[in-house]
Design goal:
disordered N terminus, mainly alpha, single chain, disordered C terminus
Length: 521
């Protein structure tokens, strides 16, 4: 064993001596050599502070030896003394301007320090002497991308392709940049070239799928996702994208089967449960929706969460994400019960959503809506007011609360303000325009009410809007117009009792013969 140690030390000494030829030539003194070798020995033992001391001692004897400054720079980086490291690297560059390695080291150092402009300058200087250095070109292109200097990045990648046209990675990188610049046709060409060079290039296949989605060519996107799954058959994220694209392409049964397959691969995938339950909700398959969500709740402790999002890898972040998913689940459950008109179950589901995420105004909005439909008006006001307090960018909540105020002829100024806020967010929404007209009607501003409600009628045909229009006409004394509007409301909704009663009174009070009352027969 002793002989092996001696051989190892001898080899290390020879290596050290081979690396300090310039020391011999600059000042052939045993002191410089001794300090330098001791520094390398300390480095081999990860004793960087002692190594730095030896290199500093050697440098004090001759400050012009670049090899010593390079060792110092590396050890300063290892000990996180970055200002000293930069000073040493700049000295190496000064004493030995032909040393390419120090330029790379400086560029990498600046990149790590996020001093991107200095890093770019180092690569540019290096490329003046070595214009076809592929490593420098690739690093420079990456820096241009980081700084969003996309045109320069494209030029640099194209120079790389001149030297290395069969680089799938470079074609892919170019495709990504061109996609950002909305040059989709050119980007598509580079992604396809990357796949020609490397047929199993998963990211290129996925990029082509994304471009197809952007171009609304969903059938082609599906083909790319299917091809991606041949490359990586167990990629859950690709299965999700494929299922979502099936649904967008109105291939409902295929989307459902895809989500069911995802849950076979991973029975605890909460996103698959949520997305599939949402499809059931949209397709009015309410029993399946509720059953799917109840099944997901059984596995709550084992939910698999997507932790790719920045800031969600901590325990606190993961708990926050879990609560978000739980709130979403109960929200969809509430929507399903509400569609079944099972108000109490819907209320309990919305309350559970709020308990999971109290700051979410959307759950308060739906809770308020179901309270209103259940006739619990005061609770509806409380929930809707809380919803607007938490989220004043939800136009549905703003309009709903404003319309309720108008219906009850209270807080009419506030109602007008709320509905105008909703219209600022969604200016062409016929329901909101009708609500504004209804506020004007309750304020006695009949001409303004008529303008707005007629505008609402032009946007969408709805029985309630036509009833409102008839009410305005009646208040203005235009009874024939009122009768026509109410009749139109009943054409759209024959069982609408409030409208029928108004027509009946009109017929009785003003002697209209037959009239619309016959519509109920």
């Amino acid at each position: 064993m002793r002989n092996q140690v001696l051989v190892a030390i001898a080899g290390l000494v020879l290596f050290c001596l081979a690396g300090i030829k310039e020391i011999y030539s600059s000042q052939s003194t045993s002191s410089i050599q001794a300090h330098y070798i001791r520094g390398i020995l300390y480095d081999s033992e990860d004793k960087f502070e002692q190594a730095i001391g030896e290199y500093l001692a050697a440098s004090a004897l001759d400050n012009s030896v670049s090899a010593i400054h390079k060792k110092l720079a590396i050890d300063y980086i290892k000990t996180a003394e970055y200002e000293q490291a930069e000073q040493e690297l700049l000295l190496v560059k000064q004493f030995d301007p032909q040393d390419e390695s120090v330029r790379f080291l400086l560029a990498n150092f600046y990149t790590a320090q996020k001093k991107f402009s200095q890093a770019i300058q180092e690569y540019q200087e290096l490329l003046k002497d070595h214009p076809n250095d592929l490593e420098a070109l690739a690093s420079l292109a990456d820096l241009y991308v980081i700084q969003e200097k996309l045109d320069q990045a494209i030029d640099t990648y194209q120079k790389i392709l001149q030297e290395k046209p069969d680089s799938a990675q470079v074609h892919f990188n170019l495709g990504i940049i061109l996609t950002k610049l909305d040059k989709l046709k050119q980007a598509e060409g580079h992604f396809q070239k990357a796949l020609e060079i490397e047929p199993d290039y998963l990211q290129a296949e996925l990029a082509l799928a994304l471009i197809s989605e952007i171009n609304q060519n969903l059938a082609q996107a599906i083909e790319h996702y299917q091809q991606a799954l041949k490359i990586d058959p167990l990629n859950i994220n690709v299965y999700h994208r494929l299922a979502q694209t099936y649904y967008r392409d109105k291939r409902i049964d295929q989307a459902i089967r895809q989500y069911e397959f995802i849950l076979k691969l991973n029975p605890y995938n909460i996103d698959a449960y949520l997305e599939l339950s949402y499809i059931y909700l949209q397709e009015k398959k309410l029993e399946q929706c509720i059953a799917m969500l109840q099944e997901a709740l059984l596995y709550e402790a084992d939910w698999r969460l997507d932790i790719d999002s920045p800031g969600l890898t901590s325990r606190e972040g993961l708990q926050q994400l879990r609560q978000i998913k739980k709130a979403q689940l109960y929200l969809v459950l509430g929507l399903a019960y509400a569609q079944k008109q099972e108000n109490q179950q819907a209320i309990e589901a919305y309350q559970s959503s709020i308990a999971a995420r109290p700051e979410n105004g959307v759950s308060y909005f739906y809770l308020g809506a179901v309270y209103e439909r259940a006739g619990e008006r005061q609770k509806a006001y409380q929930a809707l007011e809380k919803s607007v307090e938490l989220d004043d960018q939800n136009p549905d909540a703003l309009n709903y609360l404003g319309y309720m105020y108008a219906e009850d002829t209270i807080k009419l100024d506030q109602a007008e303000e709320l509905i105008k806020q909703a219209l600022a967010l969604d200016p062409d929404n016929g329901a909101y325009i009708d609500s504004l007209g209804w506020v004007y009607f309750k304020k006695g501003k009949l001409d303004q009410a008529l303008v707005e409600i007629k505008r609402a009628v032009d946007i969408f045909k709805d029985a309630e809007v036509f009833e409102h229009l008839g009410d305005v006409y009646q208040s203005k004394g235009e009874l024939d117009n009122a009768r026509g509007a109410w009749e139109k409301a009943l054409e759209l909704e024959p069982e609408r009792e409030s409208t029928q009663e108004k027509l009946d009174r009109l017929n009785t009070d003003y002697g209209y013969k037959n009239g619309a009352s016959s519509r109920r027969d």
